[in-house]
Amino acid sequence: MSFDFLKDTNKKVHFIGIGGISMSGLAEILLKNGYKVSGSDMKDSSIVDKLRNKGAEIYIGHHSDNIKDVDLVVYTAAVHPDNVEFIKAEQLNIPMMDRAEFLGKIMLGHKYGIAVSGTHGKTTTTSMVSHIVLEEDVDPTILVGGELDVINGNVLAGSSEYFVTEACEYKGSFLKFYPYIGIILNIDADHLDYYRDLAHIKDTFKQFVDIIPKDGYMVANADDTDVLDVVENAKCNVLTYGINNGEFRAKNIFYNTLGCASFDAYKSDEKLFSVELNVPGEHNVLNSLSAICCALALNFSKESITRGLSNFKGTHRRFELKGVKNGINVIDDYAHHPTEILATLKAAQNYPHNRIFGVFQPHTYTRTITLFKDFVECFHGVDELILADIYAAREKDTGIVSSITLGDAIRATGVKALNFHSFEEIVSYLKENLKEGDLLLTIGAGDVNKVGEMYLK
Question: Which entry of 88, 105, 122, 322 is annotated as an active-site residue?
């Protein structure tokens, strides 16, 4: 496969921040297709090492000398114009693209681009769609925002016209994509370091709907009124789904002892087929319905749909069972928004447990302060809550909010909540207080998963 914006495979592409989950996937797609790849990152990792073994030229640390014989530079949103490699590329007049624009250019070379958007559930739903597409055996290219066992990582470089990817709304990134099918799972207030308010977010999603071609499809969650508002004037085909609303519904829902659902999929009053999921929670019933709509729009077989969904056991860091120790189940979940936390705790209630111990690491100061009230109210499903310090990610601590202030507000609601400043302190407390039959749930998009791993060791 040759991409139009790169006339031949002798071209060399340099990635600033190549160790990121999406950037590494794009780099791997290029390597598979014969392009030369170099890249830099601030630290070594298993992802970086994997690219190195596939032939990428990797630099640890950013330096102007890393820009050597480069034809195109791709950079992440976290890279600013004062980055030394960014500056060097500008000085040499090397063409540059941000990650989203580059991903869009690759998608442009595929007839059936599938872009999964929404505030919550993108990685899980992209993985569900990926399982179905793989069952249909159409040799897709897949780019997931997490580790998926069936493709041994976060990327699969296929050679067909099918391309499956997540579509993040942050800074309007997904507006640079070229999907044939778009999915909107839900719309919620998030990324308020960029968006003014929910209305601003909805306006951006409306623009996303507008980029779908007239013969393409928008798959929309009809149980979410904001999603329905966004697709109201769509010029493409619209498929709606939901538990309570929509053309495609889940009926006769039953949950097993692990909280995983089975249900009958209906189109209006017509039963299509029965589905068994192996991931827990009502939110995953909705996620699977969106994947079903996508597959039906592509005329995939019902066997591919039901087998694909049944074979999907989850992605890493999405309600992932990390292990069992002394009769205590340790589960990790990437939830970092109050709505996601509520869904995770609802799923946990259906999971075998005596008590639920939640370890939460807030993600970014901006999200913590803008959604403070919602964070205070979303933990009533835990018996004990342990708060780690805020994970800064791309931000600096201005002192406006802390994990302590969040803990004080949560304690005022009657939830038993404790604050610790180190993972070692948290693990020590857990060792003294967890008992057989308890459930340990680590929650957050930072590195809080290490707590469960440390406890299991």
Answer: 122
